[in-house]
Design goal:
The chain has four helices and six strands. It has about 200 residues and is of the alpha+beta class. Strands 1-4-5 form a three-stranded antiparallel β-sheet. A three-stranded mixed β-sheet has the order 2-6-3, with no helix packed on it.
Length: about 200
């Protein structure tokens, strides 16, 4: 007979051992996700070499230079367009007035072509031409400066040719020798007038 009895392997003993081993393992709380190693830590960026840094700086400098060239070209185009528009504005500034004066010229030519012995027809033609000219002046804001006698002398709109003794108030208009004109409230020709001379103190 053998000195000791052979051990009998029991399934229940293996189950108990397995449960004991599982109880010793650390389990994460329910619902928690196991974190991957290194999660939450900043990723280490690869260090650029001096050559790579230089190339990146050169690329950015070239981009800035290209943007500057485009902006400069656009500014030059805007300046050139403005110069052309300004030149055209000067060149065609009187286009509206010229258009209005064309019928006036037509009427003058028609009047001169009429029978010179027909004085009434000539006078009628001149009167029509003057009305057309006044209408052209009104449309282009060209207004008369025609002060009445006794009106205060205005050096901004009137030009005194002489000062004469008068019963009117001193420094007032006696009569108008030539009408003046203003364009959009800017005097382009002052009215030529004579002005009442200040009375002597005696």
């Amino acid at each position: 007979m053998p000195d000791h009895e052979p051990q009998v392997h029991s399934p229940r003993a293996d189950e108990a051992t397995s449960q004991t081993t599982e109880s010793l393992q650390v389990r994460p709380p329910e619902g928690a996700r196991p974190e991957a190693p290194g999660v939450g830590e900043p990723e280490a960026r690869p260090q650029l070499t001096a050559e790579e840094l230089l190339k990146d700086a050169e690329r950015k400098a070239q981009e800035h230079h290209d943007a500057w060239l485009r902006a400069r070209a656009e500014a030059d185009n805007i300046r050139k367009r403005a110069q052309v528009e300004l030149a055209n504005a000067y060149k065609y500034a009187i286009e509206a007035l010229a258009t209005e004066l064309l019928p006036v010229k037509d009427s003058l030519e028609a009047t001169l072509a009429a029978d010179p012995t027909a004085l009434e027809a000539l006078r009628s033609g001149v009167d029509l031409t003057l009305k057309q000219l006044n209408a052209a002046f009104d449309k282009t804001s060209l207004k008369e400066i025609n002060p009445v006698a006794g009106q205060k002398f205005d050096p901004h709109q009137h030009q005194a040719i002489s000062m004469l003794p008068s019963e009117k108030e001193p420094n007032t208009v006696i009569n108008v020798l030539q009408k003046g004109y203003s364009l959009h409230d800017r005097v382009i020709r002052p009215a030529l007038v004579t002005v009442a001379k200040p009375k002597d103190a005696a």
